[in-house]
Specification:
β3 and β4 form a beta hairpin. This protein has a single domain, classed as Alpha-Beta Plaits, CATH 3.30.70. 38% of the residues lie in helices and 25% in strands. With 136 residues, it is α+β, with helices and mostly antiparallel strands. The strands form two sheets. It has a four-stranded antiparallel sheet, covered by helices on one side. Strands 1-6 form a two-stranded antiparallel ribbon.
Length: 136
Amino acid sequence: MKNIKSLAGLTVFIVLPLVLMAWWPSETISDHHSEEQTIVLLNFKAQPEKGDLAVSELTQLLEEVRKEPHFGSITLHVDPNDSTNILLYEAWDDISYYNTEHMNTPHLKAFMVNSKDFLTGPPDITYWSVKQVFKK
């Protein structure tokens, strides 16, 4: 009797996780992108009263950037309480490309020169690797 209870407990211990894994929607949690993309966050500060101009100039720049190889996506965010705080959330497939060829593109170099008219300085840049993606 003791062996049957032990066997039943062991079976539940092994089978239950397998059932739960099969039931859990695969699109809810995924680490599919973990080695494919690097996330780059860029925090910009526009000069006073120039937040709209900065967004307009960034939008023009991003229309060119999206044509580059290894581009994944970029989301432009503006602080709802201070339009001079601007955040870019960028996904790139090749961080080496981003740090070399991308930084030397004519459109990015021109933006850097022109940005002195509407930004307070260069952005703060941080790099992140994707660990998991959660979707609805």
